[in-house]
């Protein structure tokens, strides 16, 4: 039997930027349906992006190198998409890029940021196989 576990990532802070503290995370949900696990993970991601990143500079979540945190999109395309979604793009200071998330981002804006900066992830779904079925609700 396959089960799908939502793991909450552990983030640390070193007085300069936030970083993932190793692999894995804390289990926060278990499902037998992968699609349901992914749906709930997506809800957790929206919640956690709002709680952690609203009003923050994304560079602090990308090792202070925002351009390095971009996924498969180049800087020019990311700039264009940010301009379209937020009305502003990257800010460059002292040779480094920054992007401050608004205090109240919409779900669509958060989803765009998740796509552009895939290294910023608070929850993931992992699959595990149970060799021995577990009785749910069984009494001793």
Description:
The protein has 140 residues and is an alpha+beta fold. It has helices at 34-53, 66-69, 75-86, 107-116, and strands at residues 2-8, 11-13, 18-20, 26-31, 91-93, 96-98, 123-129. It has one domain (2-129). Helix content is 33%, strand content 23%. The protein has a 3-stranded antiparallel beta sheet with strand order 4-1-7, covered by helices on one side. The protein has a two-stranded antiparallel ribbon with strand order 2-3. The chain has a two-stranded antiparallel ribbon with strand order 5-6. The longest helix is centred in the N-terminal third of the chain and has 20 residues, at 34-53. It is elongated, with a radius of gyration of 18 Å.
Give descriptors for this structure.
two-stranded antiparallel ribbon, 140 residues, 4 helices, elongated, 7 strands, 3-stranded antiparallel sheet, alpha+beta
Shape: elongated
Biggest β-sheet: strands ordered side by side in the sheet:
4-1-7
> What is the count of helical runs?
4
Approximately what portion of the residues adopt beta-strand conformation?
Answer: 15-25%
Low-confidence stretches: none
Order of helices and strands: EEEEHHHEEHE
In whole angstroms, how far apart are the ends?
Answer: 22 Å
Total domain count:
1
Radius of gyration: 18 Å
Number of strands: 7
Mean pLDDT: 90
């Amino acid at each position: 039997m396959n089960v799908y576990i939502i793991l909450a990532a552990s983030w640390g802070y070193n007085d300069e930027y936030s970083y993932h503290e190793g692999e894995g995370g804390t289990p926060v949900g278990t499902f037998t349906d992968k699609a349901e696990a992914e749906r709930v993970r997506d809800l957790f991601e929206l919640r956690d992006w709002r709680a952690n990143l609203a009003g923050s500079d994304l560079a602090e979540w990308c090792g202070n190198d925002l351009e390095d945190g971009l996924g498969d999109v180049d800087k020019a395309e990311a700039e264009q998409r940010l301009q379209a979604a937020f009305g502003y793009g990257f800010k460059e200071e002292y040779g480094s890029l920054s992007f401050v998330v608004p205090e109240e981002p919409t779900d669509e804006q958060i989803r765009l940021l998740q796509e552009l900066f895939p290294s910023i992830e608070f929850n993931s779904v992992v699959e595990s196989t149970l060799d021995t079925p577990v009785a749910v609700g069984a009494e001793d």
